[in-house]
Amino acid sequence: MLQVSNIHKKYGKLEVLKGIDLTIGTGEVVSIVGASGAGKSTLLHILGTLDNADSGEVLFEGKNIAKYNATDLAKFRNRHIGFIFQFHNLLPEFTAVENVCLPGFLAGRPEKEVIERAKELLMMLNLSHRLDHKPSEMSGGEQQRTAVARALINSPEVIFADEPSGNLDSKNAQELHDIFFKLRDEFNQTFVIVTHNEQLASMADRTLVMKDGLIVQEVFSER
Ligand SMILES: Nc1ncnc2c1ncn2[C@@H]1O[C@H](COP(=O)(O)OP(=O)(O)OP(=O)(O)O)[C@@H](O)[C@H]1O
């Protein structure tokens, strides 16, 4: 589904990515680990079209999205890619349902269909009692599960997550991790997850270990 070859990235004189090659298949859960500063988030942002590589190629189902203009890229991202960050980035003035609906409305989908799907997703994520709550009226775990529903609203081919459980206690982290694998097992959802959480990394089908801008090790799970 995702093919990446020879990605290089510099910030000024700092060479952050030094030649990354990677292939990710549909339904795979891939974790990216490594010391702080190894280049994990930079790679994730490039894979997720949030940033450009200086050289190299990212093919998304065979399409070279680097060639898209800004409008087409935003459209592509909205329809095909979901994001989950360490901090949920929910809009404080909007309810859970409204937050989840937003990417659906941006995609121009019919309002009724989007609202129904948003409610369905929130209920699937055990948030049926929080549909009309604003983020400040929800716990950290509930906010992050709302962010998962938002990432899923347009049925993206892949979800990129950057430290998704970095801000959660161990119980809520475990619950979030279980949700990722449930989504993969039931809907063949693909995930690429940057994490410092060893438990999450070890659950992934494949773990990529990064060091100084390179993938230095690839560990396959026995799950
Ligand atoms: N926008 C930027 N401008 C300049 N330097 C940057 C920028 N983004 C990242 N860097 C630098 O690039 C290097 C890699 O950063 P990156 O965030 O990819 O690392 P990471 O492996 O995700 O680290 P962490 O685990 O701490 O999040 C770091 O030295 C960082 O300071």
UniProtKB/TrEMBL annotation:
GO molecular function, one term: ATP hydrolysis activity
InterPro entries referenced in this protein's UniProt entry, alphabetically: AAA+_ATPase, ABC_transporter-like_ATP-bd, ABC_transpr_LolD-like, MacB-like_ATP-bd, P-loop_NTPase
GO cellular component: plasma membrane
Bilayer-spanning residue ranges: none
Keyword annotations of the record: ATP-binding, Cell membrane, Membrane, Nucleotide-binding, Translocase, Transport
One Pfam assignment: ABC_tran
Domain of life the protein comes from: Bacteria
SUPFAM superfamilies per UniProt: P-loop containing nucleoside triphosphate hydrolases
Keyword presence, Disulfide bond: no
Single Gene Ontology BP annotation: protein localization to outer membrane
Location of the ABC transporter domain: 2-221
Protein name per its UniProtKB record: ABC transporter ATP-binding protein
